[in-house]
């Protein structure tokens, strides 16, 4: 049955069989969002668990979707799926310990940036923290993981709406001029933040968030190991979060 007929059945009579068929039809969206979130996650995080949380977001999106607003379902659903995946990741047992380690790293990083006037290297962080360079690099990757989990907060404005990295391109079918103007402003802020990254970081971000590639595919394209791609991604996301937070403060001050 065509998915348009399924939408009609669901909207007219809340036919649960039609809803379940819509879930099956759009499961690829859940896999797509979860796959991108897995970049830089600890090895013990299972993508299947993340996808399970994402399915709750898909169900919520199906329940709330109104095609009369002129927005494609895929555009509408991705923030709901992403939000559900992130909530699931934040609730995992490893998250509190991760936050403690990252807070310590960021405190030292901020102190060094104030002294050096630039981003400190892993070796400089290691020396300041009294740990090995390898441990500092691991913690930087953890910081990138946490930044992914909290990046939506950095992208949120006063009305609570966010502009996710995946949603930088305007929906051509959007019909609300005021809403589109707000989104355009947020995309501009995000574009300026991305422009502050190194060329390699911008390329990795573009391949993951614009082209929808996974770490293995990016590593093959760039000729780098998956571990290196994960490191570049984590550092880029961490820098983006800091840049966006500062830009938000400037906008509201």
Q: In a nutshell, what does this entry contain?
A:
It is built from twelve helices and no strands. By secondary structure, it is mainly α.
Largest sheet, described in full? none
Mean pLDDT: 76
CATH classification, class level of the domain at 1-92: Mainly Alpha
Share of helix, binned: over 70%
* Molecular shape: elongated
Q: Given the helix and strand composition, which structural class is it?
A: mainly alpha
Write down the Rg. Answer: 20 Å
Count the strands? 0
Task: Return the CATH topology of the domain at 1-92.
Answer: Rna Polymerase Sigma Factor, Chain: A
**Share of β-strand residues:** under 5%
Termini gap:
53 Å
Number of helices: 12
Give the oligomer, counting copies of the same chain as homo and different chains as hetero: single chain
| CATH superfamily descriptor of the domain at 1-92 | RNA polymerase sigma factor, region 2, helix turn helix motif
CATH architecture descriptor text of the domain at 1-92? Orthogonal Bundle
Order of helices and strands: HHHHHHHHHHHH
Poorly predicted runs: 156-163, 166-175
Organism: Symbiobacterium thermophilum (strain DSM 24528 / JCM 14929 / IAM 14863 / T)
Pfam families: Sigma70_r2, Sigma70_r3, Sigma70_r4
Protein name: RNA polymerase sigma factor related to flagellar biosynthesis
Domain RNA polymerase sigma-70 region: 22-94, 102-178, 193-241
Structure characterization notes:
With 253 residues, this protein is mainly alpha-helical. It has a domain at 1-92: Rna Polymerase Sigma Factor, Chain: A (Orthogonal Bundle). It contains twelve helices and no strands. It has helices spanning 3-13, 16-25, 27-37, 47-64, 73-91, 95-116, 122-129, 133-155, 177-195, 199-210, 215-222, 226-252. Helix 1 (3-13) runs antiparallel to helix 2, helix 3 (27-37) crosses helix 4 and helix 3 packs across helix 5 (73-91). Mean pLDDT is 76; it is low at 156-163 and 166-175. InterPro entries: RNA_pol_sigma-70_dom, RNA_pol_sigma70, RNA_pol_sigma70_r2, RNA_pol_sigma70_r3, RNA_pol_sigma70_r4, RNA_pol_sigma_FliA_WhiG, RNA_pol_sigma_r2, RNA_pol_sigma_r3/r4-like. Residues 22-94, 102-178, 193-241 form the RNA polymerase sigma-70 region domain.
